[in-house]
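Q: For a teaching session next week I want to show students how multiple molecules come together into a single three-dimensional assembly. I've collected the sequence lines for a complex. Could you give me the predicted structure tokens for the whole thing so I can convert them for display?
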Amino acid sequence: MNRSFIRQVLVASSVVAALTITAACSGGSTSTKPLSSPSGNGDVAKTVSGDVHVLMEGVPDTDIVKGLLPEFNKVYPNVHVSIESLVYDQIRDKIVASFTAPKATYNLAIIDNPWMGDFAKAGFLKPLDAYVKTTPGYEYQDFAQPLRDIGTVNGKIYGVPFYNYGLGLIYRKDQMPQPPRTLADLAAQAAKLNTPSEAGIAMQPQRGYKAFEEWGNYLFAAGGSIYGSDGKVHLNTPEAKTALNTYTKMYNASAPTNSPNWAFDGALRSVSSGKSAMMVSSNWMLPTLNKKGGPAGALTGKFELAPMPGDKQVLGLWDWAVPANSETSDADWAFISWLTSKAGEKQRVIAGGAPTRNSVLTDTEVAQKGFGAGYYSTVGKILANSSPLCRGANCDEMIQAVGTELNAAIAGKKSVDDALTAAETQANKIQSS
Amino acid sequence: MSFRIRLLLPLLALFVVAVGYPLAFSFYISLTNYKITNRFDVKFSGLDRYADALHDSAYWSALTVTFTFVLIAVFLELALGLCIALALQRQKRVRDFTRSFLLSPMFITPIAVGLMFRFLLNQQLGVIPTLLSRFGISYDFFGPGRAFFSIVLIDVWQWTPFMVLLLLAGLESLPRQPFEAARIDGASTFYTFRRVTLPMLSSVLVVAILIRGLDALKVFEYVYAITRGGPGTETQTIQYYVYNTGITFFRLASASAMAYGLLAVVMFLVILLFRRVERARRS
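A: Of course. Below is the structure for the complete assembly, covering every listed component.
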């Protein structure tokens, strides 16, 4: 080895060491402490000012919120809300980057329910209890109980319900006058409706979230639950086995052929084009399917929504939250409290938004101007008895692990017993780490 | 400081900022328990994350899937690319149109290709299953045992043109004399291809394999858009696994260790390949 080579190696090592030390000193030490103290007073002055940037998913509810901004500015003229829409997969990465930055790019956030535990624990979000308690006429208890539970972490409120995506059974009422009430009935109806030109049910067994989300409803319908009374995940149970066996048999017998990677959009396109008779989907898909000029074309008006067999379903929810590094907390809360107040929620739901407050579900004006009393009554039943896939820490990882095992069983790569045993073990390991 | 070093300084500074710092930072966090959601309790953990990766069966499975993918996809692309390049070399008419048409798939962003094939191969809505059904064929493109090969074929569809581009440039730059000598000596077409064309094209072939191989190692978009790694973990590639671990599950320390493990394997293979090429060149 010559001297020149040794010198080059030493120089290169020194550079790497220096860079590593620099990186070590700078990484992970960025503070997310609030840059200005929020008042915590929910009765925000109408003169409050601020530029509020929020990143939202490109869904109907986002468009509805955009449409309500002029109304909001009549009350708070100095708060300028700008909304950026993206597809779901990009939202989380961008808001996490904003949370961890010294200065927030998005000083108002919407949070999907699997993220809530991690984000609250990480200190990314501000507790909203003081705002909630001091906002005149806010009536926080009016939000459906399961929705409030999602936004509450360790007794503190970190999220206020924006819109729900509790699941339900969407079916063709011209083909099936009465919805199935049991899991066996669902399987029988799907088999009965299955023809060479139309599948009985469009399913969503794609690996990960979708497989777990859809199968979770089957688990509830079989009388099972995701968590036991000890707070641990219990999936290696007789009910879970019944649910997974039924799901797999239904996929093989009544779902569109060759659809093992189908997710939300595949099922929606199949049902809206008359190639499947029913699907499990978000309750707000019903108005979308029945909307004139919507995706269902000539089938518009032929769809109906029902709670899942067994009356319990998987719950999804987007919450409004204030990032810990937001400098405009009072302006943020002005917008959140205005939009999610009883009056704001009523306007949003009449415009087509997915409800979160119990009061709007029984409001005659909402029923008349919205999608009819029957729809809101069904949504009320769905919200009253529903549960999210995951609570606590590492939800995305836990959901992915369980969804991978379920997908393996559905594809015939693992036995039902092996898949559920592995799912339970992995889920508990992930949530306790 | 010599003039040469001073000329290099701007580039070195850019390299340190754009490449050196992220590399050093990711190496540093791979030696800790860093998690995006736990940034204020970072502890040095030595090589624990590397040990975790080595004991993680999913990591090895993802590596196996990825390297199998690279081997099959690059081999098919090379074989097809060479055939097409040889054909294009002899083409007399509408050369410009044919070449630009054949190259078009590689100008589409891979995520768009993934989404396109997701619907093209959809049993109820896709054109390909509809055409196949007219012949009584029902094929589950993304079912168990098949999804992996469907992803490979999508990659072949998109990146064979890249091989064509490189190999055609290589073919057209070869001197004519050896081919004329072979023709005068009465060598058959196949013999000329095997004994003249391939040896003279070997350096281009190595570069093409290397570039495509390294690029194919990064396969992510098709998996993300179509299968999400399923059925089971059949199409879970290392990039998708590292992305999930680091970004979706916030475990940046583990993801960094996994990425460095991959880097070590790739560096080893590249050095091995270059040494063989160098040895072949000298002999």
